[in-house]
Amino acid sequence: MSDALVKVLGLGVEIGGRRIVDGVSFSADGGQVVAVIGPNGSGKTTLLRALAGLLPASGDLLVADADPRETSAEKLSRHRAYCAQKPGSAWDYRLSDLGEIVGNPLGYEDWLAKLQLGACIDRTLSSLSGGEQKSAHLAMTFASLIEPFGGVLLLDEPAAALDLGRQEAVRLAVASFAQAGAACVVATHDLGFARRCDLVVVLSEGRLAAIGRPGDVLDAEIISAVWGESASAIA
Amino acid sequence: MAATKAFLAGTFLLFVLVALSLSVGAQGFGWGDGGTLVMLRSPRVLAALAAGLALGIGGAAQQGVFRNPLADPGLTGVFGGALFGIALLLGLSPESAWQRAWFIPAAAFGGALGTSVLLVLCGGGGSTSRLLLTGLGLNAFTAAGTLVIASRSGESRELLTNGAYGDWLGMATVELTWLPVLLCLSAAFLLLPLARSLDLLSFGEDAARGFGADVGSARRKAVFLTALAAAAATCLVGQVAFIGLLAPHLARALVGPRHAKVLPLSGLLGAILLLGADTAGRGLWPQAPLSAAAVTAVIGAPLFIWIARGRHE
After folding, report:
1. Which among A99, B85, B142, B278 has most CB atoms closer than 10 A?
2. Distance (Å, rounded) from C-alpha B157 to C-alpha A222?
3. Of all residues in chain B, what percent carry a pLDDT higher than 90?
4. Mean pLDDT computed over B236-245
5. How many CB atoms sit inside 10 A of residue A20's CB?
């Protein structure tokens, strides 16, 4: 437990007087991939934003040896990378600009190629499809975590808008970060992805509904309790 | 490469304009005996250059902070605030207003910063309509305030009315302009290092903080320095809208949206536009010169509608 790169104990987040996340606890070591799953509105995005240091939160929180609530954004970003669910840009950058903006142009180009966007480097964001734009943003996120060992990767539904090839590329990317010693926390609706993770955190109405290895957590009983009877068939 | 070409072409155009502007006057075309007319006109030219530079960079910074291509210190009420600040000082204490060189710039800065803070508090958050409606309200309020003060203070009435029409360049002298020019240059120069933060802010506050930007600090600096740029420019020109809108749009069309290029090129284009407008206003109608603000509005207003329309579609 002491070596964990992500330590969450009794985490609570309140927004506008409403408790969005309540008493969530889990931990992840370097090399582990954690899937955060749950129905829409169960608090996955809020949990990830709190881990990224973007929201005020109560409870104990440690991400890459730092409390994100008390650490500057600049310092946090050296060991933690975060990709939002629906990133967008106010200006129509070329993909070739984004690597420089994130401070790692070579790494960015490498990730673009892995996400099948290498040929699009001179195109602008607005000329890309939604899934391609999300991939370009994921490449920025991956490139920003220059030293994966001891780092934490936080991804909010990274593969939601992606085609099958890019979904697989994201899975491989996450696996490569874990292999290099990073802890990865991924919010997802993809149970196929969750089954391949080291730990599954199931949220329901902001609370921890279940936690454990995929084989223990992803059974019909829990899925039916959290998502409803109609979803139990996919277990 | 496109950026280098744009900067070189812009600098060349600026030199031509400076030469032209120094040559144009009410008495016709020429530099006078021994360049006497040049000496007389140079404070005006320098004032237009500095104000244009500050407005161009300030407009680009304000658009970056609000993530909104329709932000412009003229349209969002920051100029109105600056002029209202000057009007308050002239209305409350007309005798002492000119005693120190920094009194008028300080009053303008107080007004500009006040409206900027209100704009952030009430109009921030990403929605274009909210930003522009707040700007509309602030503009209406400050214009009404300036009008009330102008109508109550006989001696400042003409001065404030000219300021509201952006017609102060004609009274530029070394004594009146040296401090605002210095403030314009300082604000413009200090806005340049915010380029990377403004790029990151483009992806939203979460993403910017995720990538390590100190969003709060960058936003505070940009708002403060844009207010300073607008205030100093107001002291030189009066209210002039659209430069802060036009310059960044042209810059982005020429070199793309990276702020490291957009900020300096917007400054250069702002200087070209304002000096060009002032020179055209004087040169085309020497007997009844048009103010720089009137000329920029003739070009800027249709462009604003075009941009707003394109954005809506």
Report:
1. B278
2. 76
3. 37
4. 88
5. 21
Tokens of B46: 């320098």
- The answer to whether the Cβ–Cβ distance between A84 and B68 falls below 8 Å is no
What is the model's pLDDT at position B126?
56
Fold of the B2-11+44-312 domain: ABC transporter involved in vitamin B12 uptake, BtuC (1.10.3470)
Pair B44, B172: CB distance under 8 Å:
yes
Say yes or no to pLDDT of B134 above 50.
Answer: yes
Burial of residue A16 (CB within 10 Å: 0-12, 13-18, 19+) is exposed
Q: How far is CA A218 from CA A45, A187, A224, B193, in A?
A: 20, 15, 10, 50
What's the pLDDT band for B128 if we cut at 50, 70, 90? low
Could you give all domains of chain A from N- to C-terminal order, each with its CATH number? 6-234 (3.40.50.300)
Residues of chain B with Cβ-Cβ distance to A52 below 8 Å are 206, 209-210
Q: Sheet of A58-63: strands edge to edge? A: A18-28, A6-15, A58-63
Q: Residue type at B3?
A: A
In chain B, domain spans: 2-11+44-312
Between the alpha carbon of residue B112 and those of residues B93, B117, B222, B227, the distances in Å are 19, 9, 13, 5
Percentage with pLDDT > 70 across chain B: 95
A33 strand-pairing partners? A184
Cα separation, A231 vs A229, in Å, equals 6
* A45, A55, A63, A101, best to mutate vs chain B, most B CBs in 10 Å: A101
* Sheet with A183-187, side-by-side order of all strands: A80-83, A152-156, A183-187, A33-37, A199-204, A207-212
The SS3 of residue B164 is: helix
CB atoms within 10 A of CB A222: 19
Chain A within 8 Å of B210 (Cβ-Cβ)?
yes
Most A CBs within 10 A among B1, B127, B196, B199, hence the mutation to make, goes to: B199
Complex ipTM value: 0.90
| B132 phi and psi angles, rounded to 5 deg | -70, -35
Query: Cβ of B29: how many Cβ atoms within 10 Å?
Result: 10
Is the pTM for the entire model greater than 0.95?
no
Structure tokens at B29: 């075309």
pLDDT of B270 over the 90 cut: yes
A38-80 residue pLDDT tens: 999 999 999 999 999 999 999 999 999 999 999 999 999 999 9
Confidence class of residue A11 from pLDDT cuts 50, 70 and 90? very high
Listed residue (B237, B290, B304) closest to B76, CA to CA: B304
